[in-house]
Design a protein that fits this description.
Elements: E1 3-7, H1 11-22, E2 26-30, E3 44-46, H2 53-61, E4 65-68, H3 75-82, H4 91-97, H5 100-109, E5 117-120, H6 123-132, E6 137-141, E7 151-154, H7 160-166, E8 172-176, E9 182-190, E10 196-198, E11 202-207, E12 210-216, H8 222-238, E13 243-252, E14 255-262, H9 272-275, H10 280-288, E15 301-308, H11 315-319, E16 324-328, E17 339-347
Parallel strand pairs: 1-2, 1-4, 2-3
Antiparallel strand pairs: 5-8, 6-7, 6-8, 9-10, 9-11, 9-13, 11-12, 12-15, 13-14, 15-17, 16-17
Helix pairs in contact: 1-10, 2-3
Bound molecules: adenosine-5'-triphosphate and magnesium ion (2 copies).
């Protein structure tokens, strides 16, 4: 069987490896951190930094195709890898989604709605942008933010100095606050032959900036459901994308507003493990391996809940509950805010 290289050894890499193994593939993880969750279930794991040219070269030579579970891979590392082995999703998808400004420009260029935004290289730019965008608004670092990290909310222009300080010198983006009714996401997949399939949109609830639950089906009208799927397909087609992408959306009276895109399997797609014949992890493996896409129809209503930090104390009880599927990541150390696992509840 072929070997799939995965950049990143977190829970997403772990669940991709499990799905790959089920289809007869081997996986090889590349991860700088020690004891990555994916290493337990992968065929091989290279522990090395992204500037280790010899390790990157050997990794690329040992696999047939490369994919990734996070978007912040240094460009120089990608250059080395891609010269040896193809990478899916492609470089353009990574380049665009690594930077919130590039991403917003790309989305608006496709004719999609986003929050009003402005590039904020310095304090003077924030003062100017607050005249047009106003408050409430959110200042976000352009790069490396996740789980709501690297964000400062402004409720009045007096919050500007503190918000700039919170960015710690990093280039930032100001976004107008979107008054949404609900948040939904579309998990979309595009195959190497250009077929696009979308999972039923999920409704997302965040707590303290971190995804708390995803519920399917989302409370969306038929027409918004269609809009969501068409919009996601437009994004994947524009990028000539191969693999799974998460598209986060705000639902507003003026339609769907794109919050952000993630060029990888997505936390809000974990419900597919127990709601569909073929889940997002297998779908991603199929796409990057050049297979046809599988059956992603929802066969059950599901509520996915993340198990974060001390939520792990609930595992014994959850393990004894019917219609409940536990997915634990094997992380040794429990930390506040750390994603330790998730639970999919089947709703009958
Ligand atoms: P992720 O872990 O999904 O990558 P992130 O750190 O990139 O998260 P965002 O998705 O930008 O952060 O924001 C986290 C949450 O904050 C959103 O899901 C939404 O609930 C809220 N939020 C972000 N931007 C806005 C906005 N412009 N208007 C209203 N709410 C927002
Ligand atoms: Mg994000
Ligand atoms: Mg997000």
């Amino acid at each position: 069987g072929a070997t799939i290289g995965i950049l990143g050894g977190g829970q997403l890499g772990r669940m991709l490896s499990v799905a790959a193994a089920r289809l007869g593939f081997r996986t090889h993880i590349f991860e700088p951190g020690a004891n990555p969750p994916a290493a337990d279930v992968a065929h091989a794991c290279t522990t090395a930094a992204y500037d280790d040219v010899a390790a990157l070269t050997a990794f690329a030579q040992s696999v047939d195709v490369i994919t990734y579970e996070f978007e912040n891979i240094p460009t120089e590392a990608l250059d080395i890898l891609e010269a040896i082995t193809p990478i899916h999703p492609n470089r353009e998808a990574l380049r665009i989604s690594q930077d919130r400004l590039t991403e917003k420009n790309f989305l608006t260029g496709l004719g999609l709605q986003t929050a009003p935004y402005a590039d904020i290289p310095d304090a003077a730019a924030l003062t100017a942008a607050l005249d047009t965008i106003g408050t409430p608004s959110i200042l976000k670092t352009r790069r490396f933010g996740y789980d709501g990290k690297g964000q400062a909310r402004l409720t009045s222009p007096e919050d500007a100095a503190q918000a700039i300080a919170d960015m710690a010198g990093a280039p930032a983006l100001l976004e107008g606050f979107v008054d949404f009714s609900i948040e939904v996401s579309v998990i979309a997949t595009r195959s190497a032959s250009g077929d696009v399939a979308c999972y039923d949109p999920g409704e997302n609830v965040h707590r303290a900036g971190i995804l708390h639950t995803t519920t399917v089906p989302a409370r969306l009208s038929a027409s918004l459901r269609t809009d969501a799927v068409l919009l996601a397909a437009r994004i994947l087609n524009a990028l000539d994308y191969v693999g799974v992408m998460g598209v986060e959306l705000f639902v507003t009276p003026s339609g769907l507003i794109v919050n952000e895109i993630a060029p990888r399997v997505h936390n809000s797609g974990h419900w597919t493990q127990n709601g569909c014949a073929v889940d997002q992890f297998e779908q991603h493996i199929r796409a990057v391996a050049g297979w046809p896409l599988g059956d992603g129809q929802r066969h059950s209503d599901v509520v996915m809940e993340n198990l974060i930090g001390d939520d792990m104390d609930r595992v014994p009880e959850l393990a004894a509950t019917r219609d409940t599927a536990l997915h634990l990541y094997g992380k040794a150390e429990v930390k506040p805010g750390r994603k330790m696992g998730h639970v999919n509840r089947i709703i009958r």
